Fold this sequence. Notes:
The structure holds 2 protein chains of 2 kinds.
Chain A: H1 2-37, H2 42-48, H3 64-72, H4 75-106, H5 112-121, H6 127-140, E1 142-145, E2 148-151, H7 158-161, H8 168-179, H9 183-191, H10 196-204, H11 209-224, H12 228-233, H13 242-246, H14 256-288
Antiparallel strand pairs in A: 1-2
Helix pairs in contact in A: 1-14, 3-14, 4-8, 4-11, 5-8, 8-11, 9-10, 11-14
Chain B: H1 2-22, E1 24-30, H2 36-52, E2 56-62, H3 68-77, E3 84-88, H4 92-97, E4 101-102, E5 119-122, E6 125-129, E7 132-133, E8 136-141, H5 142-147, H6 161-174, E9 179-182, H7 191-203, H8 223-237, H9 248-253, E10 260-266, H10 270-277, E11 281-284, E12 295-297, E13 300-305, H11 311-321, H12 324-334, E14 337-338, H13 341-344, H14 357-366, E15 367-369, H15 376-391, H16 396-413
Parallel strand pairs in B: 1-2, 1-3, 9-10, 12-15
Antiparallel strand pairs in B: 3-13, 4-13, 5-6, 6-13, 7-14, 8-10, 8-11
Helix pairs in contact in B: 2-12, 7-8, 7-15, 15-16
Amino acid sequence: MSTATSDNRPARLLARYMVLGLIAVIFLFPLVFMLISSLKPDRQLLSDSGSVRAFLPVGDISLNNYVAAFERAPVELFIFNSVLVTGITVLLTLVVCSLAGFAFTFLNWRGREVLLSLILATFILPFESIAIPLLMIATQLPWIGPDGISQGWLNSYRIQIAPFIADGLSIFLFVQYFKDLPKELIEAARAEGASWWQVYWRVVLPLSGPVLATAAILKFLLMYNQYLWPLMVAQEEGYRPVMVGLQYFFLRNPAWGEIMAYLSMITIPVLGFYLVLQKAFIASVASTGVKG
Amino acid sequence: MRTITLGLSSVAVLATATSSLAQDQIELWFNNAGNPAETAVVERIVNDFNASQSDYEVVAQSFPQSTYNETIVAAALAGDLPDILAVDGPIMPNWAWSGYLVPLDIDQQKIETFLPGTKGYWDGELYAIGLWDAAVAMFARRSILERFDIRVPTLDEPWTLAEFDAALETIKASGEFEYPIDFGLAIQGEWYPYALSPLLQSFGGDIVDRSTYLTAENALNGEAALEFGEWWQSLFTRELAPGPSQDPADRETGFLEGKYALSWNGSWKALGAIDEFGDDIMFLPAPDLGNGSTIGAASWQYAVTSASEHTEGAMAFVEFMLKDEYIAAFSEGIGLIPATLSAAAMTENYAEGAPMHVFFGLSEAQAKLRPVTPGYLVSGKVFRESLANIANGADVADSLDAAVDAIDADIKRNQGYGH
């Protein structure tokens, strides 16, 4: 019996890897198509799109589309803007939402449950439904800058960051994760005389790697893919992010090769960020039950 | 001496500062970010205008065309419209009706010779003016028409419905092509009302009743429209044209690679076809399907907004743009049809005898504006859905009736859109 099992093991392993390999190939196809297409002239790209040649670096291969993309649009500016806005928002989200989650989980205060329910209820509100009122508010907000006090936040980085720092999903993630932390640890720290801030900073945060990674990745994806809001508030080219920049390539005669080159370039930060945090992300998905 | 020099420098700096302070800034938004050729022409005009006078300084900001309308509507909501903006011809009535635009106060003599499609009139007043137009034509190859003994149509004698149908059937019967003709149904968006509603008009129907603009009844579901709908559906049941599920790549290359014998296509695709086929390429007029030949008209134009605090300067800039040299420069840069014949003569592609001169004639003779109403924004979309549904096999009468109901309900909701 044990002999039969060990005989089947390599075959089962092979089958498993073949299935996993097939799934990996299916998921990789769009990326391969994008990268390969970015090296081909438009006409060839379109001709190849209906055959397996679309996934092969054959024919007239060059980096011309990348050069042309930089000539058509300030690609480096768009990537810089997106990385800046996304990076700051992710950092602020982690601070604000983890503090909120901590307060909702560990502190006793009146109205806590009601407020948490209200925050969670914002899940069901699509951003599109609040975009216009938010825009109205954005035009009225005051700001103190080098030129004194001004009104309106349009055409700035801050208007692309501020509305997205706190959100119901991130707070929910932290609350769910914090609830599963051993209560004894918190109680022991308090018994030792630690303040709530010390409990948050020295006990809770060091144990929160997975949820921090999950919240960071989800917010990163949300912010990096921002389109509607910057379209409304960033009229000056200097503040436009990558997704608005993508539209530079959809002209009367779309430059398909350049579109693929641009997409390849703007995908790099996303892949890099995910690869760095993927282990913690998977651990958190397992513990919070949230899928990105 | 040093004191004197310093003093003179200070005066010079002060004078420069005062001069720039005295200038009113005029903001211009246009729709072609990512199109270096068009941006260069706009910048050239802006620089020329700024150098020509000292009262105003025009500052241009370009936006991607595919999201331009949404940006303008958001800016209007935020109370942040510029002084001058580019506006798509058929959208103009909606923005004028919404109060975004003011009528243009420019010398009418300067636009007398402009193509009709470049003049944006709403409610009897000129709100926008364009420096170019676009046209749709039947792209064909002389060698193919000759091989199948198909008459070459002219502006004076376009194909009749019977001739057009017979030509398609003949080509189909040869088995040499995947489809005899491509109408570009893979293209979503405004292509349907722009390029395909003229076929409905050629049957005698329309998207709305233009005598009142208050209903689509009879125009979109009357006898002529039903006849059009049946014919339109038959194009796909007879497999004469690819339907809405067409691969977008085939739309781009199908005609060039010989999958389709004919292509109903825009003038902006003409250069590619000329490059591919040289003298063999022909740009034929729209067929006369019973009620005359028609193609769509009106492209992007320029207008002054109601938010402008320097209307006089904004009007002066728009008037400044209307020079043949700029019209020709735009055409050379973006390949579209110059607004005037005199400007066309200055271009490589549209001058008399040049390969694309025919488009000027098509625009002049066959162009018809899309319904000039603020409701076009909705009725155009409804028309698109209806046409796609019919091509996919939906019942013609039911589809057109449903479209009429949707358009009429929208007109009613908006209290007639000011008509």
